[in-house]
Amino acid sequence: MPRDYLVLRVAVPAPLPRWFDYLAPRVCPHPPQPGMRVKVPFGRSEVVGLIMELANQSALGEGRLKHALSLLDEQPLLDESLLGLLRWASAYYHHPIGEVVAAALPGLLRAGRAASLADPGDVQGRAPAKGSAPAKGSASVAGKSEAKGSRMPGATALDQGLLAAAPPALNAAQQQAVTEVAEAQGFQVLLLQGVTGSGKTEVYLRLIERVVARGAQVLVLAPEIGLTPQLLARFQQRFAVPIAVLHSALGERERAQNWLAARAGRAPIVLGTRSAVFTPLARPGLIIIDEEHDASFKQQDGFRYHARDVAILRAQRAGIPVLLGSATPSFESLYNVRQGRYRALSLPERAGGAAHPEMRLLDVRHQVLQGGMSAPLLDAVGEHLARGEQVLLFLNRRGFAPLLMCHACGWSAQCERCDARMVLYLDQARALHCQHCGAQRARPEQCAACQSAELRVLGYGTERVEQTLCEHFPAAEVLRIDRDSTRRKGALDDLLARAQQGGAQILIGTQMLAKGHHLPNVTLAGILNLDQGLFGADFRAAERMAQLIVQVAGRAGRAHKPGRVLIQTHHPTHPLLTALIRDGYAAFAEAALTERKHAHLPPYSSLALLRAEAVNRAAPLEFLRAAQAAAEPLAGAAVQILGPVSAPMERRAGRYRAQLLVQAARRNELQRLLDAWMPLLETIKTARKVRWSLDVDPVEIL
User: Three-class SS of residue 47?
Assistant: First the structure.
């Protein structure tokens, strides 16, 4: 019988679908445990890995195993619950476990820095309210006994020092939502559907107060960095406890400090974006996903996980409730309500007595557009400005114009590395930019094909709309908020602060302006062009169009002044669009879900997308045909394999792309195929000629 010996099963940051066996370090001051980091020899280098399991034997045999070089932690960084979640995520998304583990750790810890690199109590405390003294201990978690102890009989959270300010009164629907979530026992998924301006954040705050008062922690996820400052400000104004903030814009040291504070339980509130879903919590009590419908929760490269779905699995493993909040819930969440998996909560009215905005379609057929705007829209802008109110205009297209064309021969400026036209910018030395690969070149003076000087600018982006508005309303300040105007660090916060303080009368922007921002003086919202959502090739195009319309409309009339929403369209009689305007998002979703059901599309089926790309045009399709041949014997009648086909934008950044879609009526049937198929892909000869990746539950299929 073989002799037992201690084996460390280590996940290393390498694109290999397994972990590796090592013997314990020769000098080991602490007993190795799962969840500890360890430095190991790997090939010709040394890497930092994480112990996933301990075993008494290895299939390789003791004589072939190398010793780990050193143990880096005195205690596990990740507990068994989180390790189990990472193992599940690796298996479900079919991504190498070492890279999954790396995604869960801050950069400094991945690099092997000591877990005591700083006092883990140095996290973001609350900002003192005007005229009040700073809360004792707000700069550090040390001494925050009130966050750990139980509530004293008869004492309020404000009495105990948990709250920095008294909360406003709740309406009946808000109180009902708070009560139902607070009384939820164990794991439950609750979907809070609240119209824009209905006070969802106030519901979150009341629930956080209750969880923190009993000594537990709350994890709050927001879809984008742009939404975290306003949530943080609300939390700081309300709570006199430390808050750990986690997102990619933080410095590595600050991120590691906040991560360690959450792990130690010294930060009762953890606020972050997608990757914060893996943050360790000492005493998890509740998970909140704000704007749960947002596609930003899905990682689009590398480890392609969906933070909302991972958060739900995490809550299930921890035995705690998870609250999903949105004015426009994803069809997947609405489907799960229908199936009885999620419990629905509703906030049907705006908080504070604010009225729902009036929504109207503007038929722009046969109309002359000035900078993308019709005469009725420009007239409406003038009316609201004359009353001293703010106007928000939405256009999901950056730059000055999307097309520079020769009037003589029809030539247009194309990107040399992508199958895309270059966008003209005026702010940046009249340059042409590719918004897909980042390529730039100077605007030509004459046509590259016929040398004609008759070059015309066609279409419009946010820069052109901004120019038109400045010409029409010279006395008004126009503020443009898009990815180009917010590149500088802190620029987005500065622009939003000016917008919220009424410092600009006209706001023009893309999606980052439409999501979640409270702009109390905005009374008119204009949507310049969303028609492409009615006929998009991606089956989710109409869903995203409806969500954007509702989110943009939600910026208007949030205070005591009535709001108005004008939507320019060339298709004013389209049934989905008219249903949305006439009957609201719930009716739209009901009709669209019926269409999805008949078409056997998600959420009534499950998808996985195998992508491949290479500098050689033939290689991706060649690899995918071999992958298709390997999958077909495994598929059976329950799984469909569609393709392979070239990607809709076949060439991007100098590489040719193709894809293969796998569809199954049931998730377990899809996973059964993927489990057997993935090892075979590694053996395909042409796999070495391409970069390939698998996307399970893709949110973009084009």
Answer: strand
Identify whether the C-beta of residue 542 lies closer than 8 Å to the C-beta of residue 533.
yes
The Cα 135–Cα 133 span in angstroms is: 6
Residue 581 CB contacts under 8 Å (≥ 6 apart), including other chains: 359, 360, 361, 567
Q: Is 45 in contact with 133 (CB distance < 8 Å)?
A: no
Q: Is the distance from CB of 576 to CB of 594 less than 8 angstroms?
A: no
Higher pLDDT, 476 or 427: 476
| Rounded Cα gap, residues 622 and 618, in angstroms | 6
Q: CA–CA separation, 696 vs 690, rounded Å?
A: 19
Residue 634, phi then psi, degrees to nearest 5: -90, -15
Give the highest mean pLDDT range of 329-338, 580-589, 628-637: 329-338
With bands split at pLDDT 50, 70 and 90, how would you rate the model's confidence at 147? very low
Full-model pTM: 0.90
Contact of 579 with 591, CB cutoff 8 Å: yes
Query: What's phi and psi for 631, nearest 5 deg?
Result: -85, -35
Contact (Cβ atoms closer than 8 angstroms) between residue 154 and residue 287: no
> Which has the higher per-residue pLDDT, 166 or 70?
70
Contact between 203 and 178 under an 8 Å Cβ cutoff? The reply is: yes
Report the distance separating Cα 100 and Cα 56, nearest Å. Answer: 25
Indicate the SS3 state at residue 508.
Answer: strand
What backbone phi and psi angles, to 5 degrees, belong to 48?
-100, 120
**DSSP assignments along 217-228, one per residue:** EEEEE-SSGGGH
DSSP-derived pairing of the beta strands 564-569 and 20-23: unpaired
On the 0-12 / 13-18 / 19+ scale of CB atoms within 10 A, 634 is middle
| Residues 242, 121: Cα–Cα separation, whole Å | 8
* Spatial distance between the Cα atoms of 313 and 592, rounded to a whole number of angstroms: 27
pLDDT of residue 490: 76
Residue 608 clears pLDDT 60, i.e. is over it: yes
In angstroms, the CA 400 to CA 438 distance is: 16
Q: Out of 74-78, 264-268, 368-372, which region has the weakest mean confidence (pLDDT)?
A: 368-372
Rounded CA gap, 194 and 192, in Å? 6
Residues written for the chain: 702
Rounded CA separation 651/419 (Å): 5
pLDDT, tens digit, 9 for 90 and up, residues 355-364: 788 899 999 9
- Separation CA 283–CA 217 (nearest Å): 6
What is the 3-state secondary structure of 261-321? HHHHCCCCEEEECHHHHHCCCCCEEEEEEECCCCHHHECCCCCCCEHHHHHHHHHHHHCCC
Kind plus residue range of the DSSP H or E element containing 696:
strand 691-696
Which pLDDT score, from 0 to 100, does residue 430 have? 61
pLDDT class of 150 with cuts at 50, 70, 90: very low
What tokens does 134 get?
């700073």
User: Amino acid letter at 208?
Assistant: I
* Residue 201 backbone zone (phi > 0: left; psi -120 to 50: alpha; other: beta): alpha
394 DSSP β-pair partners: 509, 527
The torsion of the CA quartet 555, 559, 562, 565, rounded to 10 degrees, works out to 0
